Write the structure tokens for this entry.
Amino acid sequence: MAEPVQTPQAFPTRIFSGIQPSGSLTLGNYLGALKRFAQKQNEGIETLYCLVDLHAITVWQDPAVLRQQTREAAAAFIASGVDPKRSILYNQSQVQAHSQLAWVLNCVARVGWMYRMTQFKDKAGSNAENSSLGLLAYPALMAADILAFKATHVPVGEDQRQHIELTRDIAAKFNHDYGVNFFPITEPLIEGVATKVMSLRDGTKKMSKSDPSDQSRINMTDTADAIAKKIRKAKTDPEPLPETVEGLDGRPDAKNLVNIYAALADMTQAQVLAQYAGAQFGTFKPALADLAVAKLGPITAEMNRLMAEPDEIDAILGRGAERADAIATPILNDVYDIVGMIRSRQV
Ligand code: AQP
């Protein structure tokens, strides 16, 4: 891959991140992404957050369900503290620069880079030839999402690290090929204890909204009863909780539950263990369920309230798209100039 070059030119700090509306958002999305999105906004940084519906259709989506899930995801952002006045919140397909820049970046990126992406390998499985071309090109669209705004930082979970590295490679190759210092070399922000929330059924697998087992995840729309039941049934081992964080090594299911507790309570793993060392899961799981319900309950209630007004959600996304468009269109026009496109149409 091309060597990322650190650009000497300073780019103003701007955060971009997105979530696919490809299912009900999970506790993993909340702790690994949404909660941190709101924190970044509250630090006073310019923040753009996107429901990446074009990414979602890289695998089959029923159109009516996709629309519903996009509104539900928008409600989840707002209920988690993303304020559509302070952040720019919109859905990807309403801002054409995403697709237009993606085409240019498709022509910069190399096919071999795409085949090396572990998410492509995981999602395409053993039948890669039959997966959509979009699934293979997904990381180039993701690079376009970020670079259309010259975003300098992208808060993501650990699973997205490889895609951000690819964005850096694509930006560096564009800058190098055209002899410009145009795109920033974006930094991933992978922070906190919840960078990878694991499945409740298998502590070695990521909690994912597309996992066929609903028992593997907590959905942001789950009721208090459903949350308590899923945590009660979560896979664990027969040992009590250890005294030290090192004592969780080799115990992925126990470690996951401690991590979830720590992230929900804004504590470190060590602080959780200081409180629960020696406790059996019969004690720890109900405490975790109570905490999860206390934290997620108000968010779910707010989501339900917002979902009752889908027109208002659509209006919020439309306003966000206009603001996003105003930033991205001049950047796209500069890209077209750099690559040699004639721009003479009067509009
Ligand atoms: N389990 C997780 N722990 C921490 N962070 C997570 N994220 C997702 N799952 C976890 C973070 O959420 C953001 C949005 O991810 P996405 O929905 O666009 O895609 P994904 O990473 O592929 O998430 P899923 O749930 O696994 O979706 P599907 O099943 O549709 O592929 C990202 O910042 C991600 O890191």
